[in-house]
Amino acid sequence: MSSGITLTSLPKLPLCDRKQLPEYPAIYFVLDANQRVLYIGQANNLRTRWQGQTHHRLNQLQDYHRKSPVFLTWIDYTNRPEQLDEDEALFIEQFHPLLNQTRVPAKKLMPAEVMLQRNLQRIADRVVVFGIEPPQKGSLLTIQIKYRFMFQSRPVNFLRNTFKANTKTPNNLRWVEFRRSKFGACWRTKCNGVSLMLMPWSSTHGFEIDERRLQICQIAGVSMPGLTQPALSELLQIEPLLPTIHPNLEPAEKDPIPLFWSR
After folding, report:
1. Domain check: are 181 and 81 in the same one?
2. What is the DSSP annotation of 202-239?
3. What is the CATH number of the domain that holds 232?
4. What is the pTM for the complete model shown?
5. Banded pLDDT at 75 (limits 50, 70, 90)
6. 143 shares a domain with 118
């Protein structure tokens, strides 16, 4: 290790440009706008260490960066990777970085029901609450939701992008795409002890969705269009397979999802 190292002489990138980091072993320094050392670490591959959301300090440093610029600077250890451990410890002792001896703040998770509400608000004008199936032995109460595949352009891409965007905010809600065909895709998720199924609308017997057959229902506190009792009864009569597939289907008369965080 060079004991007289000058950090200002090292290559430097803003934290937001970390994708441009080189791919070699390095000891890196995280600096603030006043050249204070916030953190020191090592990496066998510097770019990989800072890819995506993998670095355990990234969220904390991004919060800091929003208030004042944060920079990454580094020393190339391509020819001496065996010295990474020893030199990292010496640099930490020399610079006393602010964050190396502090706990990593726990990520704030958005409650699943709040993320579900956001999702339902976004897709509400493209779907219909088909009905609710009471819990059977070994299963949860299930909400059947259909998206209007025949009446919307590219609904699958819209839904897929909506659910994919959830990963940008730490939360526990996961939409699983479990089926895909030329007729559409199917998703399922669970929230507060209730299962939700999202599938394409597949009625082919002249049953049209119009205001006469719809009512406003509440799902996780979100207003959504749902089939009325007469409409559901009519549909079950003209679609011969539906009573077999959904033998206990009921209209969504009241909100089936208990809310713990959104009261």
Report:
1. no
2. ---SS----GGGEEEEEETTEEEEEE-HHHHHHHHHH-
3. 3.30.460
4. 0.61
5. very high
6. yes
